[in-house]
Amino acid sequence: MRTILSPRHAAHAGNVELDAGAILPAYEMPSRAEIIKARVAEVGLGPITEPDEHELATARKVHDPAYLAFLPTVWPEWEKAGRGGTAMPYVFPTRGLRGDVPPQAIEAKLGFYAFDGGATFVKGTWEAIKSSHDTALTAAGLVRSGEPAAFALCRPPGHHAGSNFMGGYCFINNAAVAAQSFIDAGARRVSVLDIDYHHGNGTQQIFYARADVQVVNLHGDPMTEYPYFLGHADERGEGEGHGFNHNFPMPAGTDWSGWSAALDRACDLVAGHAPDVLIVSLGVDTFERDPISNFRLSSADYPRMGRRIAQLGLPTLFVMEGGYAVDEIGINAVGVLTGFEEG
Ligand code: OKP
Ligand code: ZN
User: Fold this and answer.
1) pTM exceeds cut of 0.90
2) Is residue 43 one of the residues assigned to a domain?
3) Is any atom of ligand 1 closer than 6 Å to the C-beta of 196?
4) What ipTM goes with this model?
5) Whose CA is nearest to atom 7 of ligand 1?
6) Is 60 among the domain residues?
7) How far is the CA of 186 from the centre of ligand 2 (A)?
8) What is the rounded distance in angstroms from the CA atom of residue 326 to the CA atom of residue 312?
9) Ligand 1 pocket: which of 286, 292, 324 to mutate (most atoms within 8 A of CB)
10) Among 69, 100, 296, 318, which residue's CB has the most CB atoms within a 10 Å radius?
11) What distance in Å separates the CA atoms of residue 131 and residue 154, rounded to the nearest whole number?
12) For this structure, is 9 an active site residue?
């Protein structure tokens, strides 16, 4: 299968994050994408090409246009306010505050459009966000034009970004934009299977009231795992979307036996939806040595995962999400794809 990757992802670099009492280099770093790219080349998965530029028109159907318009203004406004370093949200309109009045100060706008401090900006962040969005849409175009599968090597990731908020290293929800692009091109049903360690709260929120895009999530139990405030098993969708959202929260320490049982159930749900296309939100932070996660999958499990997904027999778009064990991220992410191709 073809891999789409933009060199512009690397403009999002040098940012820091708050982590357990310290300010550290962000875990979501450029080497992640470069190491996956090198592994794609090493195993000969297929050609690696750059994305085409895409308008934000499709993104405006899954994100608030005012939110999308805010993203490119962050760094210029931050600089204009005399600041440098990393622009980061730190004050939020939680319960008891006004969440309905967009403020003017840049530090206030950052919090207005965020649910955590993990969506950080440096000078090149918007360029990288846009390139990641373009990557998802270009790879989706390959699948639309008949490729059985494609790999959108997106960076930054997207699954925590909702209709009008960023968070968890995510800004534009690349998988959601891709899903919308398939619907716009005539797909009647799409499934998003999110196998990142963290619940894809943004994807769930965007499609929660919709029956056309089914969202199935396998993840660490939000009682103890980020993003904490969404991802429970009783969240089934609302209105027309009721029954089209499925969560499989699992305890810390889950290994292949528990995880693969959930994957089997998730795949049965996807098959039941009979989608025209499957989008896999591919995170490999389920790995036993991931520095911020608590599952126990081994490198040998990733090809198994790919083979199970291939059994669905669906046109499939893989969209890169998380994975922070950088040394093994190439082996693990590409392992899913080679397993898929072996079927
Ligand atoms: C993004 B994706 C470390 C704690 C975790 C946010 C995790 C975001 C994960 N500072 N903070 O789903 O892989
Ligand atoms: Zn994750």
Assistant:
1) yes
2) yes
3) yes
4) 0.96
5) 168
6) no
7) 30
8) 29
9) 292
10) 318
11) 8
12) no
The residue whose C-alpha atom lies closest to atom 2 belonging to ligand 1 is: 322
Q: Which atom of ligand 1 is nearest to the CA of 198?
A: 12
Ligand positioned closest to the Cα atom of 118? 1
13, 68, 82 from 79: Cα distances, Å: 17, 19, 5
Tokens representing 257? 């036996």
- Over residues 178-198, the pLDDT tens digits come to 999 999 999 999 999 999 999
DSSP state of 121: B
Q: What whole-number distance in Å separates Cα of residue 296 and Cα of residue 73?
A: 40
Q: What is the pLDDT of residues 130-180, one digit of tens each?
A: 999 999 999 999 999 999 999 999 999 999 999 999 999 999 999 999 999
Reading the block at residue 91, the tokens are: 């004050």
- What's the total number of domains in the chain? 1
Q: Identify the pLDDT of residue 10.
A: 98
Contact 175, 32 (CB under 8 A): no
Which residue has the least CA distance to atom 1 on ligand 1?
168
| Residue 291: pLDDT band with limits 50, 70, 90 | very high
Q: Whose CA is nearest to atom 3 of ligand 1?
A: 19
Give, as residue ranges, everything with CB less than 5 Å from ion ligand 2. Answer: 196-198, 283, 285, 322
Report residue 58's pLDDT band, with 50, 70 and 90 as the boundaries: very high
Give the CATH number for residue 141: 3.40.800.20
Q: Is residue 68 part of a domain?
A: no
Indicate which residue of 54, 160, 198, 219 is catalytic: 160
- Going from the Cα of 275 to the center of ligand 2, the distance in angstroms, rounded, reads 25
Residue type, 289: R
For residue 329, the surrounding DSSP H or E stretch is helix 326-342
Using the atom order of ligand 1, give the atom closest to the CA of residue 18: 10
Rg over alpha carbons for the chain, rounded to the nearest Å, is: 18
Q: Which of 319, 312, 304, 307 is nearest to 192 (CA)?
A: 319
Residue 183, domain member (yes or no): yes
